[in-house]
Amino acid sequence: MAKKLMKGCEAIAEAAIQAGCRFFFGYPITPQNDIPEYMSARMPKIGGCFLQAESEVAAINMVYGAAAAGARVMTSSSSPGVSLKQEGISYIAGAELPCVVCNMMRGGPGLGSIQPSQGDYFQATKGGGHGDYHLIVLAPSSVQEAVDLMHNAFDLADIYRTPVMLLADGIIGQMMEPVEFHEHEQKELPAKTWAVTGWKGDRPRSIVNSLYIEVDELQEMNDRLQARYKEIQEKEVMVEQYKTEGAEVIVCAYGTVARICKSAIALCEAKGVKVGLVRPITIWPFPEKELRAVMAQPSVKREITVEISAGQMHEDVRLAINGMKPVDFYGKPGSYTPTAEEIADYILKTREA
Amino acid sequence: MTTVFKKTPVLTDTIMHYCPGCGHGIVHRLVAEVIEELGIQDRTIAFVPVGCAVFGYKYFAVDCVEAAHGRAPAAATGTKRVNPNNIVFTYQGDGDLASIGAAEIVHAAHRGEKITTIFINNAIYGMTGGQMAPTTLVGQKTTTSPYGRDPEHCGKPLRVAEMIATIEGAAYVERVAVDCTPNIIKAKAAIKKAFQCQIDGKGFSLVEVLSSCPTNWGKSPAEAMDWIKSDMIPYYPLGVKKDRTNE
């Protein structure tokens, strides 16, 4: 298929449709409005359903109901809206339902800004709502990658019966880039025997529920979830390693910031300093082993994490490296996107320190 | 031998956890009997709330979804949109529907969502131990209105059926009570009409049921039934609030 110039949000919406998503429930919030707008135009033409909910809370609960019925369903929002959805996401995780949630991150806390940010890393990777649960969190660094990851997102949700989050910064959503929609192999997915479709007596009644009032039953549910998370950590890590071999400094960054870091790496290279990049594509599960292996190389002297946050992913980086070598952080909370020059200056300065 | 009564197969054999004299058991039976009589057991999906009816999925012999507090109408919307042939109903109490879920019920009605809501109004939060609800009567003592509900402080009770009836998308709205046999018979007819409204694709339907909570009202079961008649019905008049099922 030929390449097409598309805005990130619209490309993500189209990719979701091509991945088989036929139900979308959402609420307007900048900078992701192009997703529901695109869905509202396309869904009626392909036998799907777009519904604008009365609130973020209602939208995620509509997702809960549609997922319970066995549909491929998604919602999208941006930071303050995703905060509102957390109750529903926790229920979806507890009821073991598959769905996709897209968060086009903007600055925070509170109403923050409508500029890009990476301030929702903690919320996305540590569960976000109440209880012990995780989402699989995919973090694209280009519009093309966002498109490609949408297929993974729906498949992973179905395989592990878990909500999957596509976590992008506002730049990915608003930027136009050439994209190609590839044919994706149809994976063999587990049958949704648990869905509520009407009980005809030919199977046990389907009950979609996250209430386990007895301590041992709740324990069993949690053990099941934790075992699933362990399997996900073992099987589903995605990470890009860029010029890490023989590097002196390793930069760790995700999303758009990782692309800016690649430009910074070129600037450092021009000054004769070898810098590599470890870019988590899944930020949960976090590529701990991969990062540790890179850091263990004798050439590597230190690590620098770069984020548009006060250093949220940096905490996972520190846990992974666990004191093996020095680590540093560059970035600001809010919405300030650093330039390649600023990052390169920081790398070179820190290296000499 | 002639069978004069048989428990509907739409109720499971699980022993209900409701208190003696609670109206939930009556309403569960009415809903289940209606589902049986309409022949829709094999395509009905029940959405149960957070509140006393939280274990409804153990009692209704249909596919069930346990919804978050107040969110049943939104969750039911998701399921109905996926499978419009399913008969989807929510069963919600007054804390769930009239307080934390006020937005969800209003907008399900506003969209004319083709679902049915059975709304239990017992003027109190039951499951959490008897706190004040939006439907608690003026002067009524609860654990969070220990001196009686003061309208100057927290307003007067919300009349949900009348409010929903003003919404264009609502096709059928009726308030009934389960305080005595004649009213229980009328309640069943209303519930049946509400489900029929959905089967016929007419729009959103809601039946508000005035029901008893002897435990949290501090009354005997018999006193509780009397209180529905003496105190609740005068403030919450029974009857059809909206009916465009013949349109």
Please report the two chains with the greatest interface, counting residues with C-beta closer than 8 angstroms to the partner's C-beta: A-B, 39 and 35 residues
| Sheet with most strands: strand arrangement of chain A | 3-2-4-5-7-6-13
Helical proportion of chain A, percent range: 40-55%
Topology, number of strands of chain B: 7
Biggest sheet statistics of chain B: 7 strands, mixed
Q: What is the CATH topology descriptor of chain B?
A: Rossmann fold
Q: Outline of chain B, from the CA principal axes?
A: globular
Domain module tally of chain A: 2
- In CATH, the architecture of chain B is 3-Layer(aba) Sandwich
- The helix/strand series of chain A, from N terminus to C terminus, equals EHEHEHEHEHEHEHEEHEEHEEHEHEH
Q: Spatial order of the strands in the main sheet of chain B?
A: 2-1-3-4-6-5-7
Reported by name, the CATH topology of the largest domain in chain A is Rossmann fold
Note the total helix count of chain A: 12
Arithmetic mean of pLDDT of chain B:
98
Percent strand of chain B equals 15-25%
> CATH homologous superfamily of the largest domain in chain A?
Thiamin diphosphate (ThDP)-binding fold, Pyr/PP domains
Describe the structure in brief.
The complex is a heterodimer of chains A (353) and B (247). With 353 residues, chain A is α/β, with parallel strands linked by helices. Chain A is 41% helix and 19% strand.
Q: What does this 3D model show about the protein?
A:
- The complex is a heterodimer of chains A (353) and B (247).
- Chain A is globular and about 70 Å long.
- The longest helix of chain A has 21 residues, at 215-235.
- Chain A is of the alpha/beta class and 353 residues long.
- Chain A has two domains: 4-192 and 209-235, Rossmann fold (3-Layer(aba) Sandwich); 240-352, Rossmann fold.
- Chain A is built from twelve helices and 15 strands.
- In chain A, α9 (256-270) crosses α12 (340-352) and α10 (288-295) packs across α11 (313-321).
- In chain A, 41% of the residues lie in helices and 19% in strands.
- Chain A has helices spanning 8-18, 34-42, 56-68, 79-94, 121-125, 143-160, 170-174, 215-235, 256-270, 288-295, 313-321, 340-352, and strands at 4-7, 23-26, 49-52, 73-77, 99-105, 136-138, 163-169, 176-179, 207-208, 239-242, 249-252, 275-280, 282-284, 302-307, 327-331.
- The relative contact order of chain A is 0.13.
- Chain B has one domain: Thiamin diphosphate (ThDP)-binding fold, Pyr/PP domains (Rossmann fold).
- The mean pLDDT of chain B is 98.
- Chain B has a seven-stranded mixed sheet, sandwiched between helices.
- In chain B, α1 (24-38) crosses α8 and α4 (94-100) crosses α5 (102-110).
- β9 of chain A pairs parallel with β2 (63-66) of chain B.
